[in-house]
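Q: A small favour: would you put together sequence and structure tokens for a protein?
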Amino acid sequence: MKLAIASGKGGTGKTTVAVNLAALLAARGHCVSLADCDVEEPNAHLFLPVEWKTRENCTLPVPKVNDTLCLGAACRRCVDACRFKALAFMGDAVLDFPDLCHGCGLCALVCPTGAMTYATRLVGEVRGGIARIRPAMGDGKNAESPAGAQPGGSMPTLRFRDGVLRIGEAMATPLIKAVKDAPLPAAPCATGRATPQPCAIDIRDCPPGVACAAINAVHDADFMLLVAEPSPFGLHDLRLAVALARHLGLPHAVALNRDGMGAGMGQPGTGQAQADPVRDWTTREGVPLLGVIPFSRAAAECGASGSLVHDAAPEVRAAYTRLADAIEGMAREKEESRRPRGRTEPAGNTTATNGAKERTCDR
């Protein structure tokens, strides 16, 4: 199952929810992969000790004009065809602007003389590795034991991949696609055997918002879990995220994070407790509320230290356990309904490297 964990705005705790859900499901013996698709600010690896196995440069083809073959003012087909203004005609020559190019290839398709060739532009780096799940900080009295989840008492693992966007690069979508399509490193799953096959649960930590980067990350997911915070700003952006899910026709639900964060503030001048705008709105709109994670200072301290938070306090542990149960149930239903199908990796992909490799990114 491909689970996209998204949000209408940054700062709702989306990465925290993604990392802790992945860790809990891996500790239960599921074969889990986690993709940090927030390539402009990847930080999921800060919560997991990742042993990096692969590093590949992600490049995009950009136009380069052969002035000898170019017909100049007599043609201009490439300039007129480019929707992104990456080509312009000035004087008697076609000028290219690589940073504006989306690599669609239309300019080369319409060129009658073959004057349009291609160079490459570095977009960023795709990394892959194995994350070993550390015990969460907290009392741990009733935690799901990592030691018991894998054969031989070893720590559970999940397969991890992320992307790091080049500084100054404006286009995140090619790198996000490369992260999603990157081959998974072999790691022990529930059976204890190393396998290069896809994991049963593929969790994506998606970019916040509803722009191109978020759409690219979620559009082919099986389910969207929208993380929201109980505030007017959180509700405003949750509405946008739900509208996106509905537009894409994706099943979705809400996880309310830091519930009770504003408790006790009340309505000014009324003496009444403050209403929960997110709960009220999801009820009116019929949007499922899949999980409610309470606000906890102990959890905040764990997160600030780079640790998992699902065992920070009993109420937080119970909330994450219920959320993991729901995701586990959906994954099992997906596995039962899925037709048997194989997976072949694209030719030329590497699974191990001691240096940076390179792959060409699609749009």
